Each structure stands twice: as C-alpha cells, then as structure tokens.
Amino acid sequence: MSVYQIGEIVSLVFMAIALGMDAFSVSLGMGMQRLRLKRIAIVGAVIGLFHMIMPFIGILLGQAISEQIGQYALLTGGLLLVGIGAQMVFSAFNHEAKRLAEPVGFGLIFFALSVSLDSFSVGLSLGLSQVKTVIALLLFGAASMMLTWAGMILGRKMRGLLGVYSEILGGSILCGFGLNILFG
Description:
Blueprint: H1 3-31, H2 37-69, H3 73-92, H4 106-128, H5 133-157, H6 163-183
GO molecular function: manganese ion transmembrane transporter activity
Transmembrane segments: 6-28, 40-66, 72-93, 105-128, 134-155, 162-183
Subcellular location: Cell membrane
C-alpha cells in the first residue's frame, strides 16, 4: 500500500466516524427509551445498512455527474462536505424538542432514513472525487452501526449529556474534510 492509499483510508475512517456521529447523537435519545438489547442490535444493523445504501446511491450519481462536469467535480464535492458539516453544526444548536419515533417497523425505517440522509450527500461528493466505493461503504456502515449501538447503550446509562457535542464534532470533521478538498 502506498502512503496515498493509507491516507485515503484514514480519511475515509474519519469521515465514517463523522457521519456516524449523527446516528450516535440521535441514538442517545432513543436509548433513553430503555429498549431491549435485541432491539438495539436490530436498530444498529438497520442504520448501518442505510448508511451503506444511501451513500452508494449518492456515489453512483456523483460518478455519473463527474464524467459530465470534469474539472468542477472536486470543487463541488468539497463544497458539499462543507455545507453538510455546517448544517450538522447549526442543527446542533437548534433546541426545539424532537419527537422520537418508536424503532419498530416503519418507525425504524423512518429513523434509519432520517439519520442516513446526510450520508447520501456525502456519497454524492465522494462519487465526484472517485473514491474507493466498497471500502467507503463498508466503513460507513460499520462505523454508523457501532456508533448507534454505543449511543443507545450510553443513552440507557446517562441522560443526553453528549448528544449536541457529538453532532458538533461530526459536523466540524466534515467541514474540515471539505476545506481540505477545496484548499489542500
């Protein structure tokens, strides 16, 4: 492996963690509903799956767009990451109470879709930058699944102390990667 490939994988690991932070912060609140461990395992697996499906769709669209717009692809990808990261940071300061859905059936699908929408946009920007698709998807799915499990289990133990801070951290990491693409 070259230094460039190692650097790309490390960047993808940090990006996967940043994307999973959104699921982590929402899972903290969901974990306060005192769910059974079996339900927590199912919720984490479904969220991990959605964090693989949504960026895959985004990557496919990003690659299709990349062939048509050429030199503007990198600029667009960087701007998307900065925008997504900024949205995550600003939404952390929105103190309106969010009604949590029950993580069963359509509620679980809605929950997984809502926390993985940002990964669609990240997938779009990654498709524009020609990233290694399989590695990115596996990292996104694994990180979001583990962070969802951690958030739900932690939510059982404590009452929402880290929720806002994890979303700010995740948004800051995405902004940093976007700025690195733009100016690095």
